[in-house]
Amino acid sequence: MSRLILFNKPHGVLSQFSDEGSGRPTLSDYINVPGMYPAGRLDRDSEGLLLLTDDGKLQARIADPRYKKPKTYLVQVEGVPDDAAIAALQSGITLKDGLTLPAQACRIAPPDLWPRVPPIRFRKSVPDSWIELTITEGRNRQVRRMTAHVGHPTLRLVRWRIGDWTVDGLELGTWREA
User: Fold this and answer.
1) Closest CA to 133 of 115, 124, 146, 150
2) C-beta separation of 74 from 172 below 8 A
3) 43 counts as catalytic
4) Which are the contacts of 81, defined by CB distance < 8 A and separation ≥ 6?
5) Which residues face 51 on adjacent strands?
6) Concatenated DSSP letters for 138-171?
């Protein structure tokens, strides 16, 4: 029987089990379960849900864009996106590697999240706001590139959900089996 772990990855942690001699934190600093592999990646400077499994077929179904598994992100951005920026995210953004698929996007109230370490830089002269963005692709740094393209660079990125799995109720740096 296959195993699936839901891990709430902190900012700064690499989505791999080793990084020889770098001193950077990796999954092995949090998870000591043999034979588990990440199903997809989450950038070092992103936080939230990372799935790990010992089942190669399940890993492919989660990570492979062919299966279009929806991934929901809570994104703190610089500025306040107007309706046109939200509509652009919803219809698809043309990036250097082509047009993104349409996303679900909306402005949201600031979510009740764990503190980020290090904290986001606060600037009195530049407001920030939050959006919820759901995509079905997994291009490299896609959410960050999409928000920057509409004029609202990402300050904080938290993956909240992958398919039916969510990080809700899972404390930062902890994991549970699904």
Assistant:
1) 146
2) no
3) yes
4) 89, 107, 129, 131, 150, 151, 152
5) 6
6) --TTHHHHHHHHTT--EEEEEEEEETTEE-TT--
Among residues 25, 62, 23, which one has the least CA distance to residue 44?
25
Residue for token pair 């062919």: 66
By CB neighbour count within 10 A (0-12 exposed, 13-18 middle, 19+ buried), where does 22 fall?
A: exposed
Confidence check: pLDDT of 68 > 90: no
Pairing of strands 47-53, 154-162: parallel
Length of the chain: 178
Q: What is the pTM of this model?
A: 0.94
> Beta-carbon neighbour count of residue 144 at 10 Å?
19
How far is Cα 76 from Cα 14, in angstroms, rounded to an integer? 21
What's the confidence (pLDDT) of residue 164?
Answer: 94
Q: Minimal CA–CA distance to 154: which of 72, 44, 45, 24?
A: 45
Contact 38, 15 (CB under 8 A): yes
Q: For tokens 């997809």, name the residue.
A: 40
pLDDT tops 80 at residue 65: no
pLDDT higher for 160 or 138? 160
Of residues 19, 29, 43, 97, which has the active-site annotation? Answer: 43
User: Does 98 score more than 90 pLDDT?
Assistant: yes
Under DSSP, the state recorded for 147 is H
Return d(Cα 137, Cα 40) in angstroms, integer: 11
